[in-house]
């Protein structure tokens, strides 16, 4: 905070408080999301918090809303994006998981950790998981897979991606990109074409090495 802001009694803003809470949640878990420590970290008074949130519970609810609006909404959008083939549909979803601006992996990890401490959050998490899986399943069904086959393939994709996050797997972009064709074949049963892969790689400005 600047000296001018201090002199004018700057209270921050709703987004400033929310972003600070997100950082605390990601770095320290839900127990780190407390009003006074957040205020001290930002150089604001505790009372300024109440201009934007009723109480800590209101702030925690806003964190969950933000998570849904970012991770779940973007994943659903990816599932519903145009795709001429099942491989393109799956690649749309994989791209969402890889792009941290579309699907914040650290936030997802923090929410899942929080859910282990809160039955209410666990219920909401499971509801979001179901929404995501259902949308992905519907996408594969639209490409000719029967209901059960689509569910198993999408469950493999979704649980695998969430497993990456839960296990804190660390891979370079190059390593992950090299594995995408094999993952795609596992999820759809057919290998992606060169054109499909080229369009996917272009999203990340990735140029595969010559064989």
Automatic annotation (TrEMBL):
This protein's UniProt keywords: DNA-binding
GO molecular function per UniProt: DNA binding
PROSITE patterns: HTH_TETR_2 (PS50977)
The UniProt record lists the keyword DNA-binding: yes
Lineage: Bacteria, Pseudomonadati, Pseudomonadota, Alphaproteobacteria, Rhodobacterales
DNA-binding region: 34-53
Gene source species: Roseovarius gahaiensis
Pfam families, A to Z: TetR_N (PF00440)
The protein's name in its UniProt record: TetR/AcrR family transcriptional regulator
Entry annotated with the keyword 4Fe-4S: no
InterPro entries assigned: Homeodomain-like_sf (IPR009057), HTH_TetR (IPR001647)
Domain HTH tetR-type: 11-71
